Structure formats: structure tokens, C-alpha cells
């Protein structure tokens, strides 16, 4: 009798537990998404009808597959490539307008391509709008809880810690390091040209520029040269490749805990990257204790902050905190600037008239004192054509492809109410080519549109977002722009560029806008010696 009663109680508990799980699952996969879609639908926003459980994933995969099976011509440089990166965004925009909703499983997304609404998002400073939380899990092996994906007070603190190190008054002191690294790379280019036939080298330049950018960020932020940190960058690049499937952006790869071949590779790379970076941190801590640190850089500043921090930020005292911040800087600090420089030189090779105009401006401003003059910031302010070329190039080929936000509470966006839990997406290449904002020549390379600054270049300047927007604007923007000016000024003063007959134009998404087959150029040495 008593055993029967116990069995009955256990059965009741199991039944209640199963019912609770069932109700929870129903809420997550059906009731909550349905409520969110209903709120958005009542505001007149439409989108592709979702299927149960999978949302629009099947349709997205079908559209993406059709683009793979019908590739565009990679031999010529055209703007068709923009339709091959997330093609469903473009197709749905044509069908449902510049603002529409779609689903990936239980996640509800709002695609926004109206410049006026992007302006509203730029002005939204509240922590109620942040990076999608599920992306933190997806990209955790590469970025951890670093500033790129962090939210709330964790993000606020990291920004306060990092941003001052990239203010212009500190960044300008890094010009000498940028010059030294660039000159070293140019000497290797000169040697290749000497060894080539006819004094013209056919070279893929993007890997050299990545190595250069890695050298600069290592020396500037961590006090080590690329030769010491090359393993870190190589491992990060491999980890980036492993995580850069477009499906990962929308939470379609939710089985990272399974020991599949790709997951085991990601785990191995993460462990190796963490170990290498932690060694850099530990070595610096030992140097600090001995008092042998030559000068204060970003890493040293972080270590000193850990000593003086209070209990409000206990993570600051952990190895994990240092590793995550360093991984974010290693990834964003070298990859984005190197890719920007590569695309800029590709565009200048396509437009030799602008290449000559920029080169003439550098000669006029700097004369024969190019290297010494760069110690004075006035020289950079006078290089207006170079700045116009940089701004126009990162409009057309900026390394960032997607902006993503999550509403952590109900927010207002223009005349809409965006419910809590909705993910807001924008495709940057599409925003930067919108004829309503940029004019009928939006697809053309026309640096003169920036002759009077960003505010006069388009109707809605807030829709120009190569470095992100709002409070999440990239803190390393000053560093990146200064590095581009130094590197491009030195390179263009010593070499001329033309597009190689072997160049294949195929920009692809690998977390950033990457040349699938490299940027291949014909490089000729100009008269004069390297400094």
C-alpha cells in the first residue's frame, strides 16, 4: 500500500515535470514568437511566412544554395557580388519593402534598411539595445566575453578601459611604429620587384598587409613584434574560418556541444589561442614585477587597472578577462584595417587617375620629408584627397558586412515599437549603395562625394556606418584611420599599382568582407629610395 502511494507520488512528480517542460518549450518555440510576430504584424510590417519550428531557415538555405549554383562572373569587377552575400535579404527587401520581419527557429528578426530608422538606432544610447546574446555563444571561442560581443555593464566597463587608449592624443604617438613596420614590408616588396621580370611584380597583397597590420597592433598594444605573435594571428585566422559560416549568424548551428570533427577543431584552436595569449599576459606581469617594461601600452594599462580595481568588477582580476580583451583586439585590430587597405589599393588600381591625384597630393604636402613629417599631425589633416579615397573605399568595401542588435526591452524605432527579444539586422553593403541616400551614382567609385565631409556626402550621414553606429561605434576608429593614412601614404609614394590579369573579383563573408582569391595586383617601384 505504502509502496503504491510512493509510486503514485513519483508518477505525479514526473508528470508535472514533463508538463512543465512541455509548457516551457511551447512558450519558447510557439507562444512567445507568435506574440512578437503579432505585435510587429499589427504595425503593418510584413515578411516571409515562417514554418513551425524552423521559421524561414529552409527558404534562406534554398536561396543561398541557388546563388552558389549560379555564381557571378569573377573575372570582372562589378557590384553583383553584393547579391551573393545574404541574398535572401535583397530578395525579401524587393518583396516586402525596406523594413520586414523573418524568423530563424524561435528567433524573430527585424531587417531595417531605411536610412531614417538607422539614424534613430544611432541615437539610441540605452543599454536596452545591445549585441544579440545568442551570438556571444556562437562566437565565444573567438571573442569570449570581450567588448565586441559584451553587453550591459560588462561592455560599459570594457569600453571605458579600452577607448581612452585609442584617443587621438595617444594614437598619434604610434605613428613611428607604423612607419617602421610599413618600411620593412615595402623593402620586401622592392626585393620581389627586383627579382621579377621587367620590373613589375604580380603579387597577392592582402596577406602581406595582414602581417603588417598584425605587426603594428602587436607593437602598439602589446609591445611585441609580429615575429613573436605570428602564431596567435595564424590560430585566430583559422578559428575565424571555422566560425564564419553565414548560418552561424542566425543561430542555426546550435550543437556546439557535440564532439563533431568541426567542433573538436574549434575547441582545439580556442585552447591554443587562449594559451598563447595567456603567455603574453603572464610574461608581461613578470616584466612589471621586475620593473623592466620599457613603456606603457594597452596591455600594461589593463594590468595596472586590475591592481587598482574594486570589487565591482571582479572579472578584471581573472586571466579570462585579459584573454578575452586581447582576443578582441587581436582580431578586430589587425584584420579590419588590413582588409580595408587591400580593398583601397584594388580600387586605386582600377582608377589610376585617383591613384595619381593622391600621389601628387602626398608629394605636395610632404615633399622629400615624408617620414619625418608624419610625426606632426598637421600633415595628415592636409591629405584631403587621401581621406576622400579612404572614406569612399570603405563605403563600397568596408570590412564590416552586418550590423546586429537585440532589444532587451521594448524600444521605439521611428513610428514602430520593437518588442523585447527582437533582433534588428542591417546589411551594410546594401545601406552604402542605397540610391535614395547616396544618389543614382551610388554604385560608382566617386571619392569627390566626400569633398565636404560625411555630412554632405549623402542625405542621411548616420547611414554611413563602416565602423558601426551609436554607442557601439568602434573604439579603434582613430587608430585604424591613422594607420590607413600612414600605410597608404608610404606605399603610394613608393609604388604604382594596376590590376593583375589573374585577379578574380569575389568578395565573400568570413565574419568580415574578404577577397576569396586574394587581391592580386601588378606593382611597379617608383623612382627614389625607401627611407
From TrEMBL:
Q: Which domain of life is it from?
A: Eukaryota
Q: Which UniProt keywords apply?
A: Heme, Iron, Membrane, Metal-binding, Monooxygenase, Oxidoreductase, Transmembrane, Transmembrane helix
Q: Which GO terms describe its molecular function?
A: heme binding; iron ion binding; monooxygenase activity; oxidoreductase activity, acting on paired donors, with incorporation or reduction of molecular oxygen
What InterPro entries does its record include? Cyt_P450, Cyt_P450_CS, Cyt_P450_E_grp-I, Cyt_P450_sf, Cytochrome_P450_Monooxygen
Cross-referenced Gene3D superfamilies, in alphabetical order?
Cytochrome P450 (1.10.630.10)
Show the GO cellular component annotation of the record.
membrane
Q: Where does heme bind?
A: 474
Under Pfam families, the record lists: p450
Against PROSITE patterns, the record matches this protein to: CYTOCHROME_P450
Q: What cofactor is this protein dependent on? A: heme
Q: How does it sit in the membrane?
A: Single-pass membrane protein
Where in or outside the cell is it found? Membrane
Q: Which regions span the lipid bilayer?
A: 6-31
The keyword Zinc is annotated on this UniProt entry: no
Q: Member of which family?
A: Belongs to the cytochrome P450 family.
Q: What is this protein called?
A: Cytochrome P450 714A1
Amino acid at each position: 500500500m505504502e509502496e503504491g502511494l510512493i509510486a503514485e507520488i513519483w508518477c505525479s512528480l514526473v508528470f508535472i515535470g514533463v508538463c512543465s517542460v512541455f509548457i516551457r518549450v511551447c512558450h519558447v518555440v510557439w507562444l512567445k514568437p507568435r506574440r512578437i510576430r503579432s505585435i510587429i504584424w499589427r504595425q503593418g510590417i510584413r515578411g516571409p511566412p515562417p514554418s513551425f519550428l524552423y521559421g524561414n531557415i529552409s527558404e534562406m538555405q534554398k536561396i543561398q544554395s541557388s546563388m552558389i549554383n549560379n555564381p557571378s562572373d569573377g573575372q570582372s569587377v562589378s557590384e553583383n557580388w553584393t547579391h551573393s552575400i545574404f541574398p535572401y535579404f535583397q530578395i525579401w527587401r524587393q518583396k516586402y519593402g525596406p523594413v520586414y520581419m523573418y524568423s530563424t527557429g524561435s528567433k524573430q528578426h527585424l531587417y531595417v534598411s531605411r536610412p531614417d530608422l538607422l539614424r534613430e538606432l544611432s541615437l539610441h544610447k540605452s543599454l536596452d539595445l545591445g549585441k544579440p546574446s545568442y551570438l556571444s555563444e556562437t562566437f565565444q571561442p573567438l571573442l569570449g566575453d570581450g567588448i565586441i560581443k559584451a553587453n550591459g555593464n560588462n561592455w560599459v566597463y570594457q569600453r571605458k578601459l579600452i577607448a581612452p587608449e585609442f584617443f587621438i592624443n595617444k594614437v598619434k604617438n604610434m605613428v613611428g611604429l607604423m612607419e617602421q613596420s610599413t618600411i620593412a614590408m615595402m623593402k620586401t616588396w622592392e626585393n620581389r620587384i627586383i627579382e621579377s621580370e621587367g620590373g613589375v611584380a604580380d603579387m597577392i597583397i592582402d596577406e602581406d598587409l595582414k602581417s603588417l597590420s598584425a605587426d603594428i597592433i602587436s607593437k602598439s598594444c602589446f609591445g611585441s613584434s609580429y615575429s613573436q605573435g605570428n602564431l596567435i594571428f595564424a590560430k585566430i585566422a583559422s578559428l575565424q574560418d571555422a566560425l564564419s559560416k553565414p548560418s552561424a549568424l542566425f543561430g542555426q548551428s546550435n550543437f556546439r556541444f557535440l564532439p563533431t570533427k568541426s567542433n573538436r577543431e574549434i575547441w582545439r584552436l580556442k585552447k591554443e589561442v587562449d594559451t598563447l595569449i595567456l603567455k603574453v599576459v603572464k610574461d608581461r606581469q613578470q616584466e612589471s614585477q621586475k620593473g623592466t617594461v620599457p613603456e606603457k601600452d594597452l596591455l600594461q594599462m589593463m594590468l595596472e587597472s586590475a591592481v587598482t580595481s574594486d570589487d565591482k568588477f571582479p572579472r578584471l582580476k581573472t586571466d579570462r578577462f585579459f584573454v578575452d580583451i586581447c582576443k578582441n583586439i587581436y582580431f578586430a585590430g589587425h584584420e579590419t584595417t588590413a582588409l580595408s587597405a587591400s580593398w583601397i589599393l584594388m580600387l586605386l588600381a582600377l582608377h589610376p587617375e585617383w591613384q595619381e591625384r593622391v600621389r601628387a597630393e602626398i608629394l605636395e604636402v610632404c615633399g622629400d620629408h615624408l617620414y619625418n613629417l608624419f610625426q606632426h599631425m598637421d600633415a595628415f589633416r592636409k591629405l584631403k584627397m587621401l581621406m576622400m579615397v579612404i572614406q569612399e573605399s570603405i563605403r563600397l568595401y568596408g570590412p564590416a558586412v552586418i550590423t546586429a542588435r537585440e532589444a532587451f526591452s521594448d524600444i521605439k524605432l521611428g513610428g514602430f515599437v520593437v518588442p523585447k527579444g527582437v533582433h534588428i539586422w542591417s546589411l551594410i553593403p546594401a545601406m552604402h549603395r542605397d540610391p535614395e541616400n547616396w544618389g543614382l551614382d551610388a554604385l560608382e567609385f566617386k571619392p569627390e562625394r566626400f569633398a565636404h565631409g560625411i555630412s554632405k556626402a549623402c542625405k542621411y550621414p548616420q547611414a554611413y556606418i563602416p565602423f558601426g553606429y551609436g554607442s557601439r561605434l568602434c573604439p579603434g576608429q582613430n587608430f585604424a584611420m591613422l594607420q590607413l593614412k600612414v600605410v597608404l601614404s608610404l606605399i603610394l609614394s613608393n609604388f604604382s599599382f594596376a590590376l593583375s590579369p589573374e585577379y578574380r573579383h569575389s568578395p565573400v563573408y568570413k565574419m568580415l568582407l574578404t577577397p576569396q582569391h586574394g587581391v592580386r595586383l601588378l606593382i611597379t617601384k617608383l623612382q627614389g629610395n625607401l627611407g
